[in-house]
User: Which sequence fits this backbone?
């Protein structure tokens, strides 16, 4: 029974970490802030060595960074520059968040493996598509549609992060569905853009 509970706790922790990581694909600091608040008030337990995430200095730092990040995405062209920074950063932050919430008794090798695959993979899956979609929006609309995308991303980051804290398995399912939807939107948009020159020639 204890072994089964331990396996289940690991699964829940992986779902929690992967969901927070997926949220970093929308906004880097939102899931960090949510995790900090959750740890501060005892909603989640952090792995040994990562307790600092739930400290007041970390919470204040993440809150400040979150506000600056969200605001910056509403500035034309700055949003694209931020994406170039977030692309390599999201998998790293996603991996570290996953490590931070994994149970303390998980072996370091297993912990890093799970974190890189689940956390880093989830963050990259989301971030890569949001970056490309914003680039397409900038090219097609001159950036006029970017504030709408920025709003959707910020809301998605908050909702997914909060859901991860209280319903981690459900959040993981939502994250998977979200990634699939991003793929669909990406391919449909790319297909539409490829079709336009053909219609113009006709």
Assistant:
């Amino acid at each position: 029974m204890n072994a089964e509970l331990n396996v289940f706790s690991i699964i829940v922790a992986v779902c929690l970490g992967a969901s927070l990581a997926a949220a970093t694909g929308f906004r880097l600091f939102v899931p960090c802030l949510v995790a900090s608040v959750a740890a501060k008030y005892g909603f989640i337990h952090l792995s040994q060595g990562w307790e600092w995430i739930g400290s007041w200095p970390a919470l204040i730092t993440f809150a400040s960074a979150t506000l600056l990040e969200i605001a910056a995405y509403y500035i034309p062209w700055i949003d694209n520059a931020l994406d170039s920074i977030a692309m390599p950063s999201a998998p790293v932050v996603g991996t570290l968040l996953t490590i931070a919430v994994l149970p303390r008794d998980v072996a370091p090798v297993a912990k890093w493996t799970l974190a890189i695959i689940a956390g880093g993979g989830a963050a990259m899956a989301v971030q890569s598509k949001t970056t490309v979609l914003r680039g397409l929006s900038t090219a097609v609309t001159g950036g006029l549609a970017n504030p709408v995308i920025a709003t959707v991303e910020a809301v998605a980051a908050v909702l997914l992060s909060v859901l991860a804290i209280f319903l981690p398995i459900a959040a993981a399912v939502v994250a998977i569905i979200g990634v699939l939807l991003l793929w669909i939107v990406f391919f449909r948009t790319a297909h539409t853009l490829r079709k336009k020159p053909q219609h113009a020639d006709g």
Remarks:
- Confidence is low (pLDDT under 50) at residues 198-202.
- The chain has one domain: 2-201.
- Residues 2-201 form one domain.
